[in-house]
Amino acid sequence: MINTIWWIVPLSALFALIMAYIFFKNMMKESEGTPRMKEIAQYVREGAMAYLSRQYKVVIKVFLVLIVLLAVLAYLGVQNPFVPIAFLTGGFFSGLCGYLGMKTATFASARTAHGASQSLNKGLKVAFRSGAVMGLIVVGFGLLDIAAWFWFLNDIIFSPENMTNGLSFLGLDLVHAGTDEHAKMIEITTTMLTFGMGASTQALFARVGGGIYTKAADVGADLVGKVEAGIPEDDPRNPATIADNVGDNVGDVAGMGADLYESYCGSILATAALGAALPGLAGDLQMKAVVAPMIVAAIGILLSVVGIFMVRTKESATQKNLLNALLIGTGGSSLLIILALVVLAYFDWITWGVLGSVISGLVAGVVIGQGTEYYTSDEYKPTRGIAKQAEQGPATTIIDGIAVGMFSTWLPVVTIVVGIIAAYGFSGGFQNFAQGVYGIGFAAVGMLSTLGITLATDAFGPIADNAGGNAEMSELPSEVRERTDALDMLGNTTAATGKGFAIGSAALTAMALLAAYMEEIRLWLGKVPEKGEEFLAVTGLDSLKDAGIKDFTDFYDLTIFNPMLLGGLFIGAMMAFVFCAMTMKAVGRAAGDMVDEVRRQFKSIPGIMEGTGKPDYARCVEISTKGAQKEMLLPSIIAIAVPVLVGIILGVAGVMGLLAGGLTAGFTLAVMLNNSGGAWDNAKKYIEKGNHGGKGSEAHHAGVVGDTVGDPFKDTSGPSLNILIKLMTMVSVVMAGLTVASSLF
Amino acid sequence: MINTIWWIVPLSALFALIMAYIFFKNMMKESEGTPRMKEIAQYVREGAMAYLSRQYKVVIKVFLVLIVLLAVLAYLGVQNPFVPIAFLTGGFFSGLCGYLGMKTATFASARTAHGASQSLNKGLKVAFRSGAVMGLIVVGFGLLDIAAWFWFLNDIIFSPENMTNGLSFLGLDLVHAGTDEHAKMIEITTTMLTFGMGASTQALFARVGGGIYTKAADVGADLVGKVEAGIPEDDPRNPATIADNVGDNVGDVAGMGADLYESYCGSILATAALGAALPGLAGDLQMKAVVAPMIVAAIGILLSVVGIFMVRTKESATQKNLLNALLIGTGGSSLLIILALVVLAYFDWITWGVLGSVISGLVAGVVIGQGTEYYTSDEYKPTRGIAKQAEQGPATTIIDGIAVGMFSTWLPVVTIVVGIIAAYGFSGGFQNFAQGVYGIGFAAVGMLSTLGITLATDAFGPIADNAGGNAEMSELPSEVRERTDALDMLGNTTAATGKGFAIGSAALTAMALLAAYMEEIRLWLGKVPEKGEEFLAVTGLDSLKDAGIKDFTDFYDLTIFNPMLLGGLFIGAMMAFVFCAMTMKAVGRAAGDMVDEVRRQFKSIPGIMEGTGKPDYARCVEISTKGAQKEMLLPSIIAIAVPVLVGIILGVAGVMGLLAGGLTAGFTLAVMLNNSGGAWDNAKKYIEKGNHGGKGSEAHHAGVVGDTVGDPFKDTSGPSLNILIKLMTMVSVVMAGLTVASSLF
């Protein structure tokens, strides 16, 4: 039976969803403003939904193929039989979050613009609460999925009767007769761990597809509209302008949400699996260790909601006031969570060590976020240095921006390393390795415990951006535009820190998954010889059945000297670079298609430039959608296939190398791409404020080149690496059975 | 006593030096041409020597500091007492190679130009044979240093009497009384291994300083001369033009030579150390295992000289003919080496497994070189794609170039991985780990066995480039310039493949050093408690003296899960990025100083633009020299200090992570930087040939931006990473005693 306090987990998940619904309803009560505002919002909404429905069609096809594959592997005895179904639920909920979050965002933009026409605080409130819908949906559905599966496996599948009699389904052995309680919990948690792959796969398409879409539309709109036709940004005469606004939602709302949904579930599930495997724990203590990460997450949800209510500002707010308003919300949530956990620790529900690990993760998240701000904000030296270099032309702008991005990696890397070691140490890793890695899992859970509110600050950005676009296209008074601009700038800052948060949490989650991968391998080493009769008979491995392999450490050389492992490390580092190359090239090609289409419309639609002919917005949305769908397929297949191939060819050691190499090089590269891109963007804006010659100067031209190079850096390739890192690990976890089976050759 | 066949080692080293001297003398017999040609050559020569003497002054200071440090550590018992002296000899010979090679190159340029005025073949021969001087000096001095130390340690220090009575010097225990023959050879080889650090440190300054110098001069000369003043490249009125020509020698001759000198010595020494530690070998067999890598290198030298004589061409040679002429030389050498080793294997002097490993390395070198050509030559799709993107402006040029560089990493990475595993497997690694890593060492030795001739093709490039500059400034007839241009283009191709070869061999050498690092740690684990009485007493570690630690694998957790190791991996990857950032920034600053100086001279020297006033070349050389010296210090200190600090803080596991992370991420990043830079360079040249609008078109402007961004990529930051990778490993090897001592806390 599950512990009573555990019920806080499903309840807080439901609470998050109810609050999300209330925020949504309140937002919908606001007026969308003038008919023109409604019309534009409607275009964006239609475009976003058109994109999503198309993406989901591709995702469904890929899911079907993967489910069949997983089912075949399950039938052969080298895959957990629950995985094909759980794969679906993870993917479904992730997709649902994207759908609802985007729907909310696209409903909110005109309302934010209208709110801003009343007051700045009103605009902030509408946009932020709408962003909170996304944040709460993600944590709500994430935790609900986890809670439901945990209850289902623990109370239904592994019911006392089934544990006595065993349970089979379609010839697959679901519960062994005579399973003991300890083994049961390990079985449940390692099974649940593999559920994350559905979320991972859907996140891959959302992040990569969304990233390609948004930049193809952005670059396409800018190149022809701003540069060739000389019309301003967000001008309704530009056929790509709606696609551009759609892109903000597609990339920054749905893509970011799916990314963090995956981290959220992955970190909780990995930590639970590590908790179940803690040596020397049994019965209630083992149960406590398993549900502890879920409970920390549940508390995080409740206090994130409190934080959301703390965000408000006064009318004459400066940029600093606005930023402070958000900081009070996120910082307040963090502090409250720590306080709540102190109480839990005091009542012995978690150890003080776990508390230390959670705090390590929370602090690391804050440091990475603030560090990102230093290297990308125009208030500090690095970005201003780039702006100064712009005086000497585009080449020096590019070199300096790349150097800034590369140099900036030191801070997040050192923070993650210190965070990992602190979390390991607090939980007693120097005495007991397993407890230490359990602590690393809690660092990830801790960092993500505030996700309800941090994601709200993220999703806020594109809503404010779209509100600005809406105000521009609807020709609202300039004071409204000024207010939406203030909100938009705030959104740019939160987007940069949000990217730092996303990659930081991806790294910690991948670390936890990496540790949990061991458990999966350990389990399969016991299982494959026992369970995979058919597979073993087919492959002639049945002679190994009685080999009596007890532990993977007896069996695999996982020291850093093993050439298989080193080979994996090389391939992991290379994967990060090749994946980036592919996504960058994809943006280039998709943007090229968009440029052709916009040029075609300018030529063939009469009166388009005079505002009498109506541009075909939908066509541009479709072009960008098609391009994104086409281009995301190859990198996606590679990201899924390489870990499987490395597992088959280089074995478990090779996979460990691949994951560690992909994680370390990918993290560093992602930070560099995010920060270079962010710094170029803000350097350009700094020049536009009138520095180094201002708009139209040589420096400005150079700054625009930097910004254009930075676009795919920070919005496509960099964020896509988060997914690559986690997905490769998740695929390895799910394919552990196959890897073990092939390593027994 | 050393085996008789071993004497081929010092003899072939001397042979290389004699041949180098003969080539040098023959070259000096050629005429330097007109007085004007002599004058210009003289300027370049003076500039190059001024640079070198200044650099050596800095290097000497750094060496003095490091020697004192090493001596103190030796006195405390955590450093090998020979290291301070050997550190000097390694550095001295490396520096000597740079000095002699540069001297040769600067004497050869005018003679090449004069030779080209007679015939293309004559020009090729003068330039190539002069390049061969550098190649032969490097392998000659490298192997001579190794042979001398081996003889000195084996026959003098570890003489039978000393082994019976023991040997002390200044209170330091050099030979234990009663050391057995087996332990003696391990002691000798691990001692020799640490000699590489002198070469490493000198290489660091040569590569980083040279890289900064050459690009500061190049960018400075171009920005003011070509862009602002509108005078052609290599125009004698440009004060920075001599500095630019000096830079080619400083970066590509001295820098490249020092880099490969280090790889050459490091790979041989590491393999010897791994050979000595092979389990179950004693007496003659152990001796054979130790000297085998030296003998392979010696054979490589002899057959490289044969290859050098095979390089010749006919008068009407096309670019392809010229390239073939070089290929016949390098390919011929490789084949002859393989044949010779087949004979050795047949007579049981090396195993067939070792032969397989050597071939793995040789083949990997060729594949990486040719792959580099594919991704950077304008005859293939990637570079042409960049040229096409240039039509759409600088931003897309940059994005596409970065994508090409990133994508191109797959080939060298896969090649290295396959090469490592093949070398490991051929030498029996799947049965016996130690034999496998010994095989990996031989892959490195194999790849570098042709160094005598491959370095000749490398050093040929800057000589031809300078010959072109000399012809231009001396206003020689256009047919001469055409011939030197043909040679220069050939030099550009060999420079690109040479960079691939340099990074590939750096990776394999670092792999071998990484494996040898274990041996060093193993040795120190035995020694620190025994020998470092004072150190242990001071640090309170003497209680550990009798801890009875036998083997590092009992003591250190070197599995990939250890958070210390993972932390090291993160830091290693980050080091590659931060080091790049620092060198890129350095180029920017040094180039800025140069721009200011050239502008000043254009303003203040009367008649300079009319050719009546004489520009102050020496001042520009000095500016660039000063800038390079100043800027190389900080990255150098970091490269040396970080491995030491990581060793003290994170221990042996952290160091292993650092080295593996730096190696894998650094290798991938270096390939990307080299190939992006090379592709941009050739894309620009492809446009200049009249494609996509040709010179002066929009596409050309964009191409120039790409080329300028690529300059520090391919000539400063990329090549510097070779050194970073090897130096961090070498520092760790040398500081193994300190790491072990501090890990005993």
Give a topology summary:
Two copies of one chain form a homodimer.
Chain A: H1 8-29, H2 35-75, H3 83-118, H4 120-157, H5 160-165, E1 167-169, E2 172-175, H6 181-193, H7 196-229, H8 241-276, H9 283-309, H10 319-346, H11 352-376, H12 381-389, H13 394-408, H14 410-426, H15 433-448, H16 451-473, H17 478-531, H18 533-539, H19 552-555, H20 563-604, H21 617-688, H22 698-734, H23 736-743
Antiparallel strand pairs in A: 1-2
Family (chains A, B): Belongs to the H(+)-translocating pyrophosphatase (TC 3.A.10) family. K(+)-stimulated subfamily.
GO biological process, one term (chains A, B): sodium ion transport
Protein name (chains A, B): Putative K(+)-stimulated pyrophosphate-energized sodium pump
Summarize the structure.
The structure is a homodimer of 745-residue chains. Chain A is mostly helical and 745 residues long.
Please, could you describe this protein's structure?
The structure is a homodimer of 745-residue chains. With 745 residues, chain A is mainly alpha-helical. Chain A has one domain (4-158, 173-743). In chain A, 82% of the residues lie in helices and 1% in strands. The first copy, chain A, is built from 23 helices and two strands. Chain A has helices at 8-29, 35-75, 83-118, 120-157, 160-165, 181-193, 196-229, 241-276, 283-309, 319-346, 352-376, 381-389, 394-408, 410-426, 433-448, 451-473, 478-531, 533-539, 552-555, 563-604, 617-688, 698-734, 736-743, and strands spanning 167-169, 172-175. In chain A, strand 1 (167-169) and strand 2 form a beta hairpin. In chain A, helix 2 (35-75) packs across helix 21 and helix 20 packs across helix 21. The longest helix of chain A has 72 residues, at 617-688. The two termini of chain A are 41 Å apart. Chains A, B: One of its GO terms (molecular function) is magnesium ion binding. Chains A, B: Homodimer. Chains A, B: It is found in: Cell membrane; Endomembrane system. Chains A, B: It is a multi-pass membrane protein.
